[in-house]
Amino acid sequence: MGGNFQAVEPMTSADIERSARDIREFFGMGTKNVQMVNLVERILPEVLPDYDFFILPDDDMPGLAGITAISGEETIILSESTYIALCHNDREARFVAAHEFGHLILHSQQTPRLAKRTRNDSRVDPEWQADRFAELWLVPTEGVRKCRSARHVAAKYNVTDELAERRWLEVMIEGIQGELF
């Protein structure tokens, strides 16, 4: 697990959850299902003056579903196939868009630095942070608490079964630990 990567300021899962919850609160969303197309196309341009959203042909983004550029202007770029899937409310495309939104929210005020990859570097890994933001943004803890099962989570929040199962277990374990300790 060696090699270098672009590190950002360390964040715990709790820090990231707080950011996702604060943004949901700012938009007045509560625990509602996020309409990601509406967010990237309509809402973000209204609240972020330097925000841009682009769709590029898949050939111009080989191997990439989306990227976020943060250098003066905040830009989310999705591949054409990801955007089309997002418009059809595809669960994986929703995650990609939420992941890129996570970079925008968590990293727009940071300058990444080169770091050596170690086993304990997930808190400074921007990709881990953006993935975690996407999970917590799309599937808020308070909403999961109101669901009867992981299947209910997947249906309510239109996320993959794997993400729903992971969030369901996290929240249920957290609840049990809270009752025990």
Overview of the structural elements:
The structure is a single chain. This protein is of the alpha+beta class. The protein has one domain. The chain has helices at 13-26, 36-47, 80-87, 91-107, 126-138, 141-145, 150-157, 161-180; strands spanning 4-7, 51-56, 66-71, 73-79, 113-116. The strands form 2 sheets. It has a 3-stranded mixed β-sheet. A hairpin with a 1-residue loop joins strand 3 (66-71) and strand 4. Helix 1 packs across helix 5 and helix 4 packs across helix 5 (126-138). The mean pLDDT is 90.
Question: Any descriptors?
Answer:
single chain; 181 residues; alpha+beta; two-stranded antiparallel ribbon; 8 helices; 5 strands; 54% helix; globular
Briefly characterize the structure.
By secondary structure, the protein is an alpha+beta fold. The chain is 54% helix and 15% strand. It has one domain.
Any low-confidence stretches, pLDDT <50, length ≥5? none
Summed up, the helix count is: 8
The chain-level structural class is alpha+beta
The gyration radius over C-alpha positions equals: 17 Å
The biggest beta sheet reads:
3 strands, mixed
What would the average pLDDT be, to the nearest integer?
Answer: 90
User: Based on CA inertia axes, which overall geometry fits?
Assistant: globular
Integer count of domains: 1
Spell the H/E element sequence: EHHEEEHHEHHHH
Q: Which range best describes the helical content: under 10%, 10-25%, 25-40%, 40-55%, 55-70% or over 70%?
A: 40-55%
Strand order of the largest sheet: 2-4-3
Strand content: 5-15%
Terminal-residue CA separation: 35 Å
Q: Count the E strands.
A: 5
